[in-house]
């Protein structure tokens, strides 16, 4: 079953790699910084058709058009057809396809595919995390030895002061920041030891569902930023780290959340 999901995700990568008319197909979604192209829709439609042909019982929860067919389904796919759409629009070649499988309320499987570098990150609950079939493991280092990746949650303007506070508090403690434009790849980079910790004040399930399972299976911890479990529905903040740096990050967040004007700014 898991091999066929991986094959479907990999072949969807050909649509992304082969995209020839990106510039002409860009449209605004919720604002001028939230874009969509015809390829986002094409990849989602391809995944929906192929995944549901292979697994007709499953539901589907996808980013584009907010396809939300999960009521009464024991199993459903959580899908981001192109995570890092702004990078895709700018031909930056740092985007991915993210497919998670939720089974009876727990994330069971995740695949995140970077089609330009042909990197396939996968994990199945209890079976470890892999990059192109080879096991990956997170580095277990304190914040003082951590590269931090973060997302700006730019679609949710009310979160900006909280993101700024988090950066202000963490920057003096860490090695440095990275901001890539794809939450799913950021979290997989943490899983693979290319960075060490990730945070974003508000994202949607398709951005993190597959990648956080990959990070957990690589030895990491993932939750909402206040330390409560990820919600996998609607909006949620995300924190990912190792046993060493995750508690440090959560302590900083809880301190910030106590500040008067920070109430409600981290989802
Ligand atoms: C976005 C990216 C970005 C993150 C946003 C996401 P999209 O997804 O993952 O890094 O900061 O919160 O929504 O719009 O490119 O699919
Ligand atoms: Ca996304």
Describe the structure.
This protein has about 270 residues and is an alpha+beta fold. The protein is about 30% helix and about 30% strand. The protein has helices at about 1-15, 40-55, 85-90, 160-170, 185-190, 205-215, 245-255; strands spanning about 25-30, 35, 60, 70, 75-85, 95-105, 105-115, 120-125, 130, 135, 145-150, 175-180, 195-205, 220-225, 235-240. The model has no long low-confidence stretch (mean pLDDT about 95). It contains 7 helices and 15 strands. The chain is globular, with a radius of gyration of 17 Å. D-MYO-inositol-1-phosphate (IPD) binds near residues 152 and 181.
Biggest sheet details: 8 strands, mixed
- The strands making up the biggest β-sheet line up spatially as 4-3-5-6-7-8-9-10
How many helices does DSSP assign? 7
Mean pLDDT reading: 97
| Bound heterogens, unique | D-MYO-inositol-1-phosphate, calcium ion
**What sequence of helices (H) and strands (E) makes up the elements?**
HEEHEEEHEEEEEEHEHEHEEH
Radius of gyration: 17 Å
Low-confidence stretches: none
Report the strand count: 15
Q: What would the keywords be for this entry?
A:
single chain; 267 residues; alpha+beta; five-stranded mixed sheet; 7 helices; 15 strands; binds D-MYO-inositol-1-phosphate; binds calcium ion
């Amino acid at each position: 079953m898991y091999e066929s999901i991986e094959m479907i995700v990999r072949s969807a990568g050909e649509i992304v790699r082969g995209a020839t008319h990106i510039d002409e197909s860009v449209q605004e979604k919720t604002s001028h910084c939230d874009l969509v192209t015809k390829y986002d829709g094409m990849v989602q439609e391809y995944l929906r058709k192929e995944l549901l042909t292979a697994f007709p019982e499953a539901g589907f929860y996808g980013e584009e058009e907010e396809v939300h067919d999960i009521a009464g389904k024991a199993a459903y796919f959580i899908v981001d057809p192109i995570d890092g759409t702004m990078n895709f629009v700018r031909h930056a070649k740092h985007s991915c396809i993210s497919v998670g499988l939720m089974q009876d309320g727990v994330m069971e499987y995740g695949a995140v595919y970077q089609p330009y570098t042909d990197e396939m990150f996968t994990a199945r609950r209890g079976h470890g995390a892999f990059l192109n079939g080879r096991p990956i493991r997170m580095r277990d280092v304190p914040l003082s030895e951590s590269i931090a990746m973060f997302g700006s949650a730019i679609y949710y303007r009310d979160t900006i002061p909280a993101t700024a506070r988090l950066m202000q508090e963490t920057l003096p403690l860490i090695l440095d920041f990275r901001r890539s434009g794809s939450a799913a790849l950021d979290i997989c980079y943490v899983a693979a030891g290319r960075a060490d910790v990730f945070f974003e004040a508000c994202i949607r399930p398709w951005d993190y569902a597959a990648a956080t399972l990959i990070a957990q299976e690589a030895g990491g911890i993932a939750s909402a930023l206040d330390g409560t479990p990820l919600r996998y529905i609607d909006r949620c903040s995300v924190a990912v780290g190792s046993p060493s740096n995750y508690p440090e990050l959560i302590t900083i967040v809880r301190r910030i959340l106590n500040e008067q004007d920070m109430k409600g700014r981290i989802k």
